[in-house]
Write a structure and sequence with these properties.
The strands form two sheets. Strands 1-4 form a two-stranded antiparallel ribbon. Helices cover 52% and strands 6% of the residues. The protein has twelve helices and four strands; from the N terminus they run αααββββααααααααα. The chain is mainly alpha-helical.
Length: 243
């Protein structure tokens, strides 16, 4: 359910006219996502409206739809060389192509309980601290959402690094999964299959929250008078990339 497929097209520029149209849709989306529903019926009806707004945005952003990198053996080899240079060590495991599940770690020997088999130095990690020291740092200092939601800070940090050809984390970013099976990729029909299950409410909330965050940042990036240091993020920010 909800599987995302990789695209091979490279991002292209979007005309100012289309950008304004997307901004209008983003403002409508932000407004819709901030009105809490009062009943289960309203919750579903509101989701359908939010979903349609998102689909309209995705269609207009199709000129620069997010294209995940090719996650192949070449990328894995580049990551392994990068990891070795960063003193990331492992034992009794190897990176393996698991078919439809993508790449993962496979044990080559029995691993005992509490046995250390992977060590990642802190200075190689993408964290809220590295985000504050990046081109995103000034925005974190002034934006209340980024100050209070570290997961959102990390999401934008990852996008900034993804769109920067000089990012020190590119070999790592290039092996991140290109497809996911989460509610953010579900269709209304797939959401309906969850009705009656405790996961239904959480799935709707997740979709609404991410849609609201996308709309918030799109509006911010395209109405702020100064987006110093993150112009490349403004130029490439899309719903497909953010989710």
């Amino acid at each position: 359910m909800g599987k995302k497929t990789a695209r091979s097209k490279m991002p292209r520029k979007i005309s100012p006219v289309v950008r304004r149209e997307i901004l209008t849709l983003a403002e409508q989306l932000l407004q819709k996502c901030t009105v809490p529903p009062n009943t289960i019926k309203e919750d579903w009806e509101q989701f359908l409206e939010i979903y349609q707004l998102v689909q309209n945005i995705i269609k207009k952003e199709s000129a620069y739809l997010f294209s995940p990198p090719s996650r192949d053996q070449v990328a894995v080899s580049a990551f392994e060389s990068w990891a070795k240079g960063k003193n990331i060590t492992s034992r009794k495991v190897k990176i393996t192509d698991c078919g439809s599940s993508g790449y993962g770690l496979e044990a080559t020997e029995d691993i005992q309980i509490d046995e250390l088999f992977l060590s990642v130095p802190t200075n190689t990690m993408m964290t809220t601290e590295t985000a504050k020291k990046s081109s995103l740092g000034w925005l974190i200092e002034v934006d209340p959402l980024l100050q209070n939601m570290p997961n959102v800070t990390l999401a934008l940090h990852l996008l900034c690094e993804r769109f920067s050809s000089s990012s020190p984390w590119l070999p790592y970013i290039n092996i991140l999964p290109a497809s996911y099976s989460t509610p953010l990729y579900f269709t209304p029909d797939e959401f309906e299959l969850l009705m009656g299950d405790p996961a239904y409410d959480e799935a709707l909330k997740q979709y609404r929250h991410i849609a609201r965050q996308y709309a918030y940042f799109y509006k911010l990036f395209h109405t702020a008078t100064d987006v110093k240091g993150i112009l490349f993020l403004k130029e490439n920010f899309s719903f497909e990339a953010y989710r």
